[in-house]
């Protein structure tokens, strides 16, 4: 029969107990905690089951910060939305690209390019610089 070797991860590492003044302080802290737990069980048995933890408190802060961030974003969107300028534009008065190039709708691409080049040379000629 072969003996199983114990792995190093299963061995428990014992830490030496605190000595001197540290030992007394640690003992007093433990006694205080034990006393407070027993007092809490007597006075409020429903609260003694689950003592409040720091993680729960921190997550509560994170929740409130998230709610505050969402509220700021929503209020900013509403502010910008209701203060934006509205225009009563007459869309019939807008010129189409074909009117500007002075060509008919459905003209071939070559004619569109030719008209565009003629207008660009008219308004942005190199000789004017």
Outline the fold blueprint.
Elements: H1 21-43, H2 45-48, H3 54-82, H4 97-101, H5 109-123
Along the chain, the helix and strand elements come as: HHHHH
- Return Rg in Å: 40 Å
Major sheet, described briefly? none
Helical fraction: 55-70%
Round the mean pLDDT to the nearest integer and report it: 77
Describe the fold and architecture.
With 129 residues, the chain is mainly alpha-helical. The chain has two domains: 18-82, no CATH class; 91-124, no CATH class. It is 59% helix and 0% strand. It has five helices and no strands. The protein has helices spanning 21-43, 45-48, 54-82, 97-101, 109-123. The longest helix has 29 residues, at 54-82. The N and C termini lie far apart (102 Å). The model has no long low-confidence stretch (mean pLDDT 77).
